[in-house]
Amino acid sequence: MKDIILTGDRPTGNLHLGHYVGSLKKRIEMQNSLDYDKFYVMIADTQALTDNADKIDKVKNNIIQVAIDYISAGIDPKKVNIFIQSMVSELHEFTTYFMNLVTLSRLQRNPTIKEEIKARGFETSLPIGFINYPVSQASDILAFGTTLVPVGGDQLPMLEQAREIVNSFNYTYSPQEEIFAMPKAIVSENKLLQRLPGLDGKIKMSKSAGNAIYLCDDEKTVREKVMSAYTDPNHIKVSDPGQVEGNVVFSYLDAFCEDYHFEKYLPDYKNLDELKAHYKRGGLGDVKVKTFLIKILEEFLTPIRERRKECLNHIDDIYQMLFENSHKASLDAKVRLEKMKDAIGINYKKLLSLK
Ligand code: TRP
User: Fold this and answer.
1) For every one of its 355 residues, what pLDDT tens digit does the chain have, with 9 covering 90 and above?
2) Atom 2 in ligand 1: residue holding the nearest Cα
3) Any ligand 1 atom below 6 A from CB of 185
4) Fewer CB atoms < 10 Å away: N or C end of the chain?
5) Is the CB of 69 under 6 A from ligand 1?
6) Cβ of residue 45 lying under 6 Å from some atom of ligand 1
7) Ligand 1 atom 9, closest CA
8) 183 C-alpha vs ligand 1 centroid, how far in Å?
9) By CB neighbour count within 10 A (0-12 exposed, 13-18 middle, 19+ buried), where does 273 fall?
């Protein structure tokens, strides 16, 4: 049997370059390989509500935004099932039973959760739904028999949790046949690219930090953002030697620049190594490097913007596609839900047929 692939995003804002580099790019590659049985991409609205309970409009409006970002970036709804989490109610049933297999202290040790609790100021009043979301995410993954989960590095603890639930389920209920596949994370091989830094030099590009370039940003915005990006604070005069480590502009070049870009936009250099060497030596100004980066980003973003425009003319069709796909996903999840209930011993309809 071929792989079943599933991944997703919370609809809390538009997708940015960090999402693209950290996961969208890999998804599109996997999608185009056609080497899978099923491929699901979930818009995780239920998960988004775990820390946005009072911001329904934000989550609701971003469902279509994220769907448009996906399609514009190259996810093909003909190949991939893009669905809405809350429309697959079976997922909540999985979560209910999985919750009995996970301890609170285990959730409190999850490093991503720990970081997020701090970032949200949840230390003193922590919503149960929030601390529980790794269990709910395990349901998202396990309900479909998922074998591969392409995600950013911060999602590895969620996968670990899902794997533990599979073991714990098998240990507790000894199902006759294997119900849940053991899921595996697919993370970018390149450590540098697992987390694209923010424009301000912070470790991660994120909506909340306001340091992101969005897939839907227009040309002027991209130019302004790149021009304001953090470089090397000690590289004051052009003649000064500069640092490329921790220099955001070079991190973005690492992610997006290919040799042919030099021939096209900056023929004085053959490749990124040569450009970096010059910067380190001194004599290369930030503006020149930034201008080069802007051209590369424009080449990348222009077709995405065009597809976005096209999508904006077909909003109803996109909603329709999401609803149909959610229904299909729900039917898929139901099959495994029944098997799970059999294994636990709570499929009471079975009692009738024994008579
Ligand atoms: N937690 C993921 C994020 O914040 C979103 C998500 C929800 C997800 N369910 C998932 C990712 C299942 C992969 C698999 O980006």
Assistant:
1) 899 999 999 999 999 999 999 889 999 999 999 999 999 999 999 999 999 999 999 999 999 999 999 999 999 999 999 999 999 999 999 999 999 999 999 999 999 999 999 989 999 999 999 999 999 999 999 999 999 999 888 899 999 999 999 999 999 999 999 999 999 999 877 776 678 999 999 988 988 889 999 999 999 999 999 999 999 999 999 999 999 999 999 999 999 999 999 999 999 999 999 999 999 999 999 999 999 999 999 999 999 999 999 999 999 999 999 999 999 999 999 999 999 999 999 999 888 866 5
2) 9
3) no
4) C
5) no
6) no
7) 137
8) 13
9) exposed
